[in-house]
Amino acid sequence: MTQQPHPFPLTLILFGITLLTSLLPLTLGKQPAVNALVAPITKDSCTSLYTIALNSTKQYLIDLTSPFVLGPCPPDYTLVHCTAPICYDANHRSDCPIINAYRPPGFCRCMASMRHPITGACFSGNETVIRIYIASTDGRNPTSLVSADYVNICAPDNALTGLPRGAVGIAGFGRTSLVSLPARLAWDVSIRSNENLVVNPSFYNRFVLCLPSTTNTPGVAFFGANPYYLLPSYLPDISNSLTYTTLLQSPNYSDVAYYLNVKGLAVNGMSVSLPTYELTFDSSGRGGVKLSTTIPYTTMKTSIYKPFIEAYKTATNWIPHKPSVKPFELCFDTRDLGSTRVGYGVPPIDIMLNDGKNWTIFGANSLKDVKANTACLAFVDGGENEIPAITLGGFQMEDSFLLFDVPNSTLGFIPTLRGLQTTCSNFNFTSGV
Ligand SMILES: *[C@@H]1O[C@H](CO)[C@@H](O)[C@H](O)[C@H]1NC(C)=O
Ligand SMILES: *[C@@H]1O[C@H](CO)[C@@H](O)[C@H](O)[C@H]1NC(C)=O
Ligand SMILES: *[C@@H]1O[C@H](CO)[C@@H](O)[C@H](O)[C@H]1NC(C)=O
Ligand SMILES: *[C@@H]1O[C@H](CO)[C@@H](O)[C@H](O)[C@H]1NC(C)=O
Ligand SMILES: *[C@@H]1O[C@H](CO)[C@@H](O)[C@H](O)[C@H]1NC(C)=O
Ligand SMILES: *[C@@H]1O[C@H](CO)[C@@H](O)[C@H](O)[C@H]1NC(C)=O
Fold first, then answer.
1. Where in this chain does the record put each Xylanase inhibitor C-terminal domain (predicted)?
2. What is the tens place of the pLDDT at every residue in 249-299?
3. CA distances from residue 96 to 22, 124, 367, 415 in whole angstroms, order as listed
4. What domains appear along the chain, each with residue ranges and CATH number?
């Protein structure tokens, strides 16, 4: 006996298909789902600093330690009211005074102030919100442009001093809940998920910085959820290869920087004897190990720098020294150094984290070519009065893959992508779809 197919499932399937096709135009609209946004990062050859392109072409200095974007405002910008949450979040994040503040009567406008990360000068201005276009991505290519806004403090022209040539402002990626560039992009894209956009619920305040080591080809910033792919195309989602660690917050409320939880340093597997209490904060927020993209090289307080450089000299005592090249102290003849996939064959430096993980710095991120046949240990003595014990600088983070999860206060990291035989300059910016 042959069994007749039951008619019921077929009807259900047909009904399901009709339902789906009739709902599709409503839920998806014209836009594909937004999983993440992507933008190129350029390294400036003159300052060795990094900029991100907003609205396709306008360059902003990437600053992990600033709370919001400081840049020019269009002539017809709208003011924000002083009681708005984005005003409160921006206002309580600076030790700089606000100049030309609101005086009643009239619209109580929001102003905020910020310290220029390069010159140290204070700037204040009116707060506004600026709408731009930014590319969404499937993780492999830019797909379509979506509009999103960010919180901007209107900058006077002299705020551009010290920025890379062509940059028009400073993009703060700091630890805020509402006003940093990644925080606001995530918020703005998510609230529009019930309008014309379909947004992945995992699109919240998390971002990837992948700084390029070359000025010729851009690196990449992602905002939102993985996957994150780099060429060659057979490489799996880079987020599968990350090590995770906790990020610390300074007890100083106006400090929005991200700090690593470090217990010590090692050179060539040997622990360096350090005043380790300096690696943690005191009650006012001095000390700690900060991440900064606005200094080119890692800077250490003298009490950390001295034992570190001695340990490095000991570990490399078989390599003859060359005369110092400012700002560096210890230089080598590159013809005496081997070469590996991860740079010159020199002893690795471990930043030993309290949760047992290591951020290991290999030759590509420890030795900087300064002239023909000469490379120097790219760490700088910051003096006795440095506030952080160590500030990890741009050169040490080039071709590192760094995923900042701000609400969860975690960092997913790969100290160098060269171990995976790729670099930050390998995102395929050719538009797909
Ligand atoms: C962003 O780009 C669009 C299209 O190129 C342009 O019309 C708009 O004025 C730009 N917005 C800003 C804030 O630069
Ligand atoms: C802020 O906005 C007010 C009102 O539009 C304007 O009078 C003032 O000049 C602006 N301040 C600055 C520093 O741009
Ligand atoms: C608190 O942080 C701000 C911003 O980073 C800094 O300028 C200030 O010096 C810090 N205060 C102390 C006491 O370290
Ligand atoms: C971290 O580095 C230290 C010093 O080189 C080493 O002793 C330790 O085994 C490393 N830990 C891991 C998890 O690799
Ligand atoms: C949040 O952080 C904890 C450790 O601090 C980690 O175990 C957990 O996986 C993180 N959650 C997400 C969603 O990344
Ligand atoms: C880059 O992406 C484009 C568009 O998807 C594709 O045609 C091209 O083959 C990709 N390039 C490489 C090197 O994979």
1. 257-413
2. 999 989 999 999 999 999 999 999 999 999 999 999 999 999 999 999 999
3. 56, 8, 36, 34
4. 10-224 (2.40.70.10), 238-426 (2.40.70.10)
